[in-house]
Every structure is written in structure tokens, then in C-alpha cells.
Amino acid sequence: MTRLDLTRRAALAGMAALPLLPRLAHAQTVGGITRLDPALDAIVDIGAPIEVLGSGFKWAEGPAWVKEGGYLLFTDVPANIIYRWKQGEGVTSFLNPSGLAGPIPAGIREAGANGLLSDGQGNLIMADSGTRLIATVDLKTKRKTVLADRFEGKRFNSCNDVAAGKGGTLYFTDPPYGLADGDSSPLRELSFNGVFRRAASGEITLIDSSLKRPNGVAVSPDHRTLYIAMSDDQRPEILAYELDGNGVATRKKRVFHDFRAALARKLPGLPDGLKTSADGHVYATGPGGVYILSPEGKALGLISTGKATANCGFGEDGKTLFLTSSDMLARVRLKRSGW
Questions:
Q1: What torsion, rounded to 10 degrees, do the Cα atoms 309, 148, 235, 15 define?
Q2: Which residue, 31, 84, 238, 339, shows the most beta carbons closer than 10 Å to its own?
Q3: Is residue 119 left, alpha or beta, with left meaning phi > 0 and alpha meaning psi from -120 to 50?
Q4: What is the pLDDT of residues 118-134, one digit of tens each?
Q5: How far is CA 53 from CA 116, 129, 175, 268, 322, in A?
Q6: What is the C-alpha separation between 148 and 53, in angstroms, rounded?
Q7: C-alpha to C-alpha distance for 136 and 117, rounded to whole angstroms
Q8: pLDDT band at 184 (very low <50, low <70, confident <90, very high)
């Protein structure tokens, strides 16, 4: 069991006595921002408050801003709910169940959707951990359509995160977090935890089958680099894969950022979700919170709530960074837009 597994289990245990619906925050702020390099000052003010927008979740994940409606969607994976947050309205339930419907089999640990992506055309693309697939959801009708559920005839483990490339290409990760017994689950059909590409045609290709815990996924703004975060306490890294002009991964990959030093300090969390900004910076969760990394992989600063942070995403006018951190949803204002 990895450190992230333990973090999630502790979060679940601590939230067991909370009510079903999350509490709304009232101007509460948490944590702080640490400057690791002077270049951070052009991106965010280290005195900017981290505002809590809601709390009481079991494990908040997958923030995705819907520009057309001016609201944020995010998941509570163990609770099997997608929530909506909108300024002036707070947090409300948007889709329940978000993932696996009906009685939950004993072998499923996380039945809900995980990573989310708004396609800007009225659809939500989700990594559905419980149903073990990638799907699109019509935001008006909430009708779900399966985009990918198998590779070479075998079901995925528990799809975790998804990112968009050029021309309708999708990239996604498939660790075993949604399965109660992880790698030893009798429900597993694939013998590895993969990184995959879905072409616009629907063709599924395997990018990497060698990673123990592939998790967060993002694409550089020029569509030439694919980033994969590994929630692996033995290899807490972000890898960068070279993409050709068609968005196909070549054999060239490198370590983009190594979190071993932060992990050794026993900071909460592991590499998990990540997003890229229009100027090429990478906002990546890791031990301690969200790291702002330069296009070369240098750590410029750390945004910390004091708890493990699963994911982040840009929203509002692009200058707001939303954080899904353990049992809470938070936001912080930036100096420049991520879009």
C-alpha cells in the first residue's frame, strides 16, 4: 500500500462521522505559499490567501471549470458524487452517482468518477474509476457515453485521470486505486497499470506499461510533451514523454521533476494531479501541496493547505487556481492566467 493509499484511508476514517452533504465554508483561509525561487513573484503573491470554498468531502478530486456556465465541477471519488461550485451559490450536488451505478461490488474501493475535463462544447469528459472507463457526459442531459473501456479486449483497472491533446486526442492513466485489492484484485484483467492514448477515431494505444502508479496526466500547450505523475513512494516523479506532430508518444521520455527530497521531509501527499498553463508552467500536486514548476521542471513555489492535495485546475477568469485538498475545496488568486 502506498503513502497515498494510507492518506486516503486516513481521510476516509476521519470523515466517517460527517454528514452526507459537505459543509460550506465562511471566509475561512488555510495554509500558505512558499517562495522557492524569485521567479514565483511574477506568478503569485506569496501573501495571497488560500480560501476554503467547501469542506466535509471524503476525498475531493478532479476540478474542471465549465466556461459556458461559469461554474466548477469536482469529484468526491469514494462518495461517488460530482459536485458543482458557483460563486454566490456554493457547493451543490451535480451528478449522483458519478460513476458506478447500482449496488457496489465488494471488490470496488472507489466507485465514483475521478479526473474531469470540460471540452468547451457542453460535454464533461471523465475518468470513471468505478465503472473502469473513460466517458463523456452531456452537461445538460447528464447522459453518459462510453469513449473507452477496454484495451485489446480487456477491461481497464480503474481509470484515474484524463487530458486532452490536439485534434480530439485524449490521454489517460489506469492505476488500480479503485479496486479494493489493488494489484492483486481478482477483478483485474490487465496485468499492468498503463498510460493510454485515445485517438479521435476511437483507437486505443498503449504508451507505457512499466509504471507502478501512473496518476495525473497533462499536455504541454504546444502539444509536444505529455506529463505523467507517479503516485509511487519509491519513485515519486513526474515523467515527460515526447509527442510527435500527431500527438503520438515517441520512445523519448525523461524525469521532469523528482519529489524525493520533499517526500523525505514527510510532507503530506504524493505526486497526483497536474495542469499546464498557457505559458508552459506546470502546476503539480506533490508532497506538501501544489508545486509551481517552470517549463524546465524547476520548483518555483509551493501552495499548501496543510493537507494532501489531490488535484488543481484553473477557473473563473483563468487567474484562479482551484485546489481539491483531502476533505476540502479551496482557491487562490494568481497574477497571470493559466489559459
A1: 30
A2: 238
A3: alpha
A4: 999 999 999 999 999 99
A5: 19, 25, 29, 21, 9
A6: 33
A7: 9
A8: very high
- The angle subtended at Cα 20 by Cα 15 and Cα 23, nearest 5°, is 75
Q: Which residue has the cell 492535495?
A: 309
Maximum Cα interatomic distance, the chain, rounded to a whole number of Å: 52
User: Nearest to residue 217, comparing CAs of 265, 157, 167, 275?
Assistant: 275
Question: What count of Cα atoms within 13 Å lies in the side-chain half-sphere of residue 326?
Answer: 25
Q: What is residue 108's DSSP assignment?
A: B
What DSSP string runs through 42-91? GT--TT--EEEEEE--SSEEEEEEETTTTEEEEEETTTTEEEEEETTTEE
- CB 73 within 8 Å of CB 64: yes
Mean per-residue pLDDT for 244-252? Answer: 95
Q: What domains can be seen in the chain, in order of their start residue?
A: 3-333 (2.120.10.30)
d(CA 114, CA 99): 9
Main-chain phi, psi angles of 40, to 5 degrees: -65, -30
Alpha-carbon distance 231 to 42, whole Å? Answer: 29
Cα 142 to chain centroid, rounded: 21
- Report the C-alpha gap between 228 and 79 in whole angstroms: 26
pLDDT in tens, 82-138: 999 999 999 999 999 999 998 999 999 999 999 999 999 999 999 999 999 999 999
Q: Which of 178, 239, 241, 169 is nearest to 205 (CA)?
A: 169
**Residue whose C-alpha cell is 482557491:** 331
